[in-house]
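TODO from last week: model Catechol 2,3-dioxygenase-like lactoylglutathione lyase family enzyme.
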Amino acid sequence: MTEHTARLDHVVLWVRDPAAAAVFYEQAVGLTPVRLAEFIAGEEPFPSVRVSEDCLLDLMPSAAAEHMKMLPGAADSAGHPVNHVCLALPRGDFDALRTRLEERAVPASDVTHGSFGARGDATRSFYFRDPDGNVVEARHYD
């Protein structure tokens, strides 16, 4: 990938409790929290979790919606659902995620095969919801 290639930098998810959401994404999904301690200390407005070296999920408190002023109507996006976010994982991480979700009794869809994505058809994929109802797809390619 070159510096002239567009990349997804981050996705902002509205959540009720950003600290709890960060713990879910760390413990159940296996992502690393970023700025969580600083958020808890009141030094940052929201924490994130790292998807990859150059991509984050920002966990924005839904109570902050009224302060969204970057565009007219931006505050109205709070609670407006994104269809889903997809995480592409190595095969072992995919299997480990499925196991961690089962251990925590997090409902997940059946595993499907061949769904299309950024790298073509996935070998396997499934969906689950985070504690705030955001839908996450997990997949792996071989």
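Done. Strands lie at 10-15, 32-34, 48-52, 55-61, 85-88, 116-117, 120-121, 124-129, 135-140.
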